[in-house]
Design goal:
It is a single chain. The chain is an alpha/beta fold and 253 residues long. The protein has two domains: 154 residues, 3-Layer(aba) Sandwich (Rossmann fold), CATH 3.40.50; 88 residues, SIR2/SIRT2 'Small Domain' (2-Layer Sandwich), CATH 3.30.1600.10. It has eleven helices and nine strands. A six-stranded parallel β-sheet has the order 3-2-1-7-8-9, sandwiched between helices. Helix 7 links the parallel strand 2 and strand 3. Helix 5 crosses helix 8. The longest helix is centred in the N-terminal third of the chain and has 20 residues. It starts with a helix and ends with a helix. The model has no long low-confidence stretch (mean pLDDT 93). Bound molecules: zinc ion. The site of zinc ion has 8 residues, from loops.
C-alpha cells in the first residue's frame, strides 16, 4: 500500500471522534472462517435455495439438508479466535473513538474480542432459536444433538422448529438493527469498512449514507469494492495487519 495513503488514513482515524465500523467476511476469513461467497465457499458447493427461509420453515427435508451442512461447517466457527482487526476495533471503542461495529458476519467474533456495541444485521449463528416460543439455545448444544444423530432438532421446551439465529436467504432483515445501523452511519464522522467488497445490500448502502451526511470513509479490503470511488482512502490489504497498524498508529500519535 502507498505510504501516503496509509498516512492519510491514520490522520482520519486520529481526528475522528464518532467512528462506525462496517465489517464483512474478509475480517473473519483471517480467523479461519471460510467466506460463503468466496472461491470454494459453501455457496459454490451447496445450493442456497435449499436453505432459503420459506423452505427451511416449511420443509423438514430442507432443514435436514441445512443441518447436514451446518454440522460440518460449525467446528470451524467454534474454533475461530478474533484477530488483530477485531482487537483494533475494541481498542478504538475503549479509547471512546468508536461508537459501534456494524457487522454482516454471524460468527460472534466481535463480541468474543470484547467489543461492547455490535450491531449484527444478519444475526448471530452462535445461537439457535425456537420459531414458536423464541427459546434460545447455544449452537454448541445443538452440535451435540446433531452429532448424536438428531437430523431435525426441535425445541426442548415446546417441540417447535429450531432455526439458526441468522438471516436466511429470502428472510426479512431484523428491522431494529438495520435501522440503527443507518442512524449510526448518518451521524458518524468516519466510517471504516473492513473486509467487505460491499456487494450485499442493505449493508453496502451504509457507505453512501455516511458519505452524504458528511462523514469520511476509509475502506480496508483485499479486493476492489463497489464504493472505492467515493472513499477518502482505500487501503488494499489484509484486515488484521492493516487495521492493527492503522489503529496502533492513530492511537499513539
Ligand atoms: Zn420452543
Amino acid at each position: 500500500m502507498a505510504s501516503s495513503e496509509f498516512g492519510r488514513a491514520v490522520a482520519l482515524v486520529r481526528d475522528a471522534r464518532r467512528i462506525v465500523a462496517l465489517t464483512g467476511a474478509g475480517i473473519s476469513t483471517e480467523s479461519g472462517i471460510p467466506d460463503f461467497r468466496g472461491p470454494g465457499g459453501s455457496w459454490t458447493k451447496y445450493d442456497p435455495a435449499v436453505f432459503a427461509y420459506p423452505q427451511f420453515v416449511g420443509d423438514p427435508e430442507s432443514r435436514k439438508a441445512y443441518w447436514r451442512w451446518s454440522v460440518e461447517f460449525w467446528p470451524q466457527v467454534a474454533a475461530a479466535k478474533p484477530n488483530d482487526a477485531h482487537l483494533a476495533l475494541v481498542a478504538l471503542e475503549r479509547a471512546e473513538r468508536l461508537r459501534c461495529v456494524v457487522t454482516q458476519n454471524v460468527d460472534g467474533l466481535h463480541g468474543l474480542a470484547g467489543s461492547r456495541d455490535v450491531i449484527e444485521i444478519h444475526g448471530n449463528g452462535t445461537r439457535t432459536v425456537c420459531l414458536s416460543c423464541r427459546t434460545s439455545y447455544d449452537r454448541n448444544r445443538i452440535q451435540e444433538r446433531l452429532l448424536g444423530g438428531d437430523t431435525d432438532p426441535r425445541c426442548e421446551a415446546c417441540g417447535g422448529v429450531l432455526k439458526p439465529d441468522v438471516v436466511l436467504f429470502g428472510e426479512r432483515m431484523p428491522q431494529g438493527p438495520t435501522e440503527r445501523a443507518f442512524d449510526e452511519a448518518e451521524s458518524c464522522d468516519l466510517l471504516i469498512v473492513v473486509g467487505s467488497s460491499l456487494v450485499v445490500n442493505p449493508a453496502a448502502r451504509l457507505v453512501p449514507q455516511a458519505k452524504q451526511n458528511g462523514a469520511k470513509v476509509v475502506i480496508v479490503n483485499l479486493d476492489r469494492t463497489l464504493y472505492d470511488g467515493i472513499a477518502d482512502v482505500v487501503l488494499r490489504g489484509r484486515a488484521a495487519e492493516t487495521m492493527g497498524s492503522l489503529v496502533g498508529e492513530a492511537l499513539s500519535t
